């Protein structure tokens, strides 16, 4: 069936809405200018009436008769005078206009004394970087005019700089990263520590713009995000960095927040993810958030090298093939994942050669999540066994066409212990927790456009997808629901997203555990008499039509 073209109001509705909004705003401003005298007089009459009502209320009851007689006498005298009502009306309008005037104090034309001293100090600090002895008309000189170097500035309520445009001479080497980093560090130090600043360099106009970034929201709990299959929300960022927003629930309220969306699948250019951070920075929270989103449309294999039970809530759930915390189980699960990747590739290749669509068992996404795999590296070396990271080479190299996605999370101190395959094939990168600009650049491959701070909440960091820009990132709160330190609201939010328990083969349904009461007692299935298997003829060889799903 042929598609009908979209109506014109829908195809270019955004432009028409923007134009209509601009026309409405212009009309409202014009009407306000024309009706400003009437608005002022109406406001004054309302204030005069309120003052009269307040005076009548404050007058004692025994004196209200005399006050009423005096007001009536004045009105009678005014009515009997020639042109009395006209003069009274003019006087009343003048009093209302005076009473209804805008009493908001006018903003000062320039900075006050303290703000001027701050700008002068910043100007003097930039002189050694933006001046040279050969310049005949230096823009920066000791004791020079700072207002020429700072055409635009703004201060917050605390008297600190919140917005600043800095002009610099054309001979400054703004194309060198080190020179830019020195200027950014100086501006951030002189403008006030403990805040995040965004720097935008305009090489053509020879100026740099400093802006103070608002803190990212930390009260976003785990929930179902409005995404399509193949899209994973890593966290949320600034509204100026992305054009897309997601509707989120904050208790009984809803708000649109710009997300950082990671796309996986056959057409993804960043099929695998690497997350690094300090202890307690939120890398395990990020993996739990990714696992809960992946379980909506795929299967998950989790390897926990920390051994702290961060993923115990996912054990035995629908779609969770394995949650391994030991070296033997990790090796078995990753070896099965490598064989499953090869099987999917072979099945898809045979289908393509025969001109058929890929089999259904190769279309369901398979996620391999590893938390601190470097911990198993030391154990494997001590026991003279295979390193689990070596089994990731096949899923990392050939996982994209097989719908296999690998997510690795580890600590920044153990980044050198990661295998070459992990470092080469994880093009989506995340850095969480406090980190220097050099550490962020070494992981993401590009420096951030903001100044990192020393104290950040859990789940706060930076993200970069492939060769895209570096985004500030705040991971949604997805704590371990079995942790005693987890709040009831966050615990319930995670438990609402966890899939139900896997139904055993005998039909018994295992109930979900209550974190307050602990794990339920296991239910023993009824014993059944298993008949003896019949002997199989030598020629009758059984054929496995479907491979084993879990190790």
Automatic annotation (TrEMBL):
Residues 466-486, 498-551 are annotated as: Disordered. Keywords: ATP-binding, Membrane, Nucleotide-binding, Transmembrane, Transmembrane helix. ATP binds at residues 277-284. It comes from Streptomyces caelestis. The chain crosses the membrane at residues 65-84. SUPFAM superfamilies: P-loop containing nucleoside triphosphate hydrolases. This is FtsK domain-containing protein. GO terms for molecular function: ATP binding; DNA binding. Residues 257-441 form the FtsK domain.
